[in-house]
Design a protein that fits this description.
There is one protein chain. The protein is an alpha/beta fold. It is about 50% helix and about 10% strand. It contains twelve helices and nine strands. Strands 2-1-3-8-9 form a five-stranded parallel beta sheet, with helices on both faces. A two-stranded antiparallel ribbon has the order 4-7. α8 packs parallel to α10. It starts with a helix and ends with a helix.
Length: about 300
């Protein structure tokens, strides 16, 4: 029995070692989130869900805001399935920010769904849907190799992606999606599926004072380390209409929050035609680069006004 246990342990160590080597070499294909928690602490972060994951490109921001902030910036976005403002997300952000930073840049992607109570939540009883999901279920956010992620979140590994390579998370955290069809009929189907999904959110989710409070707590923490910018990323009119119906006056609430905390809020949902969201929600690579550049221009203009 003792020999069997030793062999099993050695085999487990060997398999774990092989997986971790593959993650270090091909992690951007195998797992969308591994490099979020295996990269070092950062002085600047993009925080949000899949809209910012794909739509905000750190390389563009680094180039256009060089010298204004402590860069480079890292894209610490997840997807809407995991991303939500709360105690767990704030804990992970605190574990990702370099504590000595005082001139960082923190771009927070905001939309109603990030501050909603959803299936799996019973917030008044302290039950949260995200408690077993990354990064909320973790304690270490800048460890390489990150054994905690490996053992808690191995279900997110997709080794077939090494061969397909249709999408990749770059070392700076940006998700580059290369599997976008040119077939307009198929793209329209994608858009209709997104509309159906978001209507489902609106029917079953509700505004959460708890999550709104944690957005403000996140802002308060990040302000200690630099400049905070709230941004609503452009998407289709159909999606915006659903969001406005779900949270009437959302932009007024975001403006009030920004004014209260003396930070910038940029709403790009009014300029849909300027940027191309291939499924009605996510920007393609070219539009993402243009949008990232435009956001940098807006940040520069706002900072100039503050210093005048």
């Amino acid at each position: 029995m003792k020999k069997f246990i030793i062999k099993l342990l050695l085999f487990s160590i060997l398999i774990s070692g092989i997986v971790l080597i593959m993650l270090s070499r091909y992690g951007g294909y195998v797992d969308y989130f591994y490099n979020k928690v295996s990269s070092p602490r950062q002085s600047a972060l993009i925080i949000g869900e899949s809209r910012s994951f794909q739509g905000l490109q750190p390389a563009v921001i680094n180039e256009n805001l060089k010298g204004d902030f402590d860069l480079p910036i890292f894209n610490y976005s997840f997807t809407l399935s995991q991303a939500t403002y709360g105690d767990g997300f704030l804990k992970s952000i605190k574990g990702k920010v370099k504590q000595t930073t005082r001139n960082g840049l923190f771009i927070l992607s905001i939309q109603p769904w990030l501050m909603a109570e959803r299936e799996g939540d019973t917030i008044e009883k302290g039950i949260f849907f995200e408690k077993d999901l990354p990064p909320h279920n973790m304690s270490f956010f800048a460890m390489n190799p990150n054994f905690e992620y490996f053992f808690k979140n191995y279900s997110y590994f997709h080794f077939k992606a090494i061969i397909k390579r249709t999408s990749k998370v770059h070392d700076d955290g940006w998700l580059e999606e290369s599997n976008i069809p040119k077939d307009t009929i198929l793209l329209n189907q994608w858009k209709q599926e997104q509309i159906k999904m978001y209507k489902g959110f609106a029917d079953h989710w509700k505004k959460s004072a708890y999550r709104f409070m944690y957005l403000e707590k996140t802002i308060e923490f990040l302000k200690q380390h630099g400049t905070v910018v709230l941004v609503r990323i452009p998407c289709s009119k159909a999606i915006i209409a659903i969001e406005e119906q779900f949270w009437n006056g959302f932009d007024n609430d975001m403006n009030a929050l920004a004014q209260k905390n003396q930070i910038q809020y940029v709403n790009y949902t009014l300029v849909e035609n300027s940027y191309y969201s291939y499924d009605g929600v996510h920007l393609d690579k070219n539009s993402g680069a243009a949008f990232s550049k435009s956001l940098c221009d807006s940040i520069k203009s706002f900072n100039k006004l503050k210093t005048q």
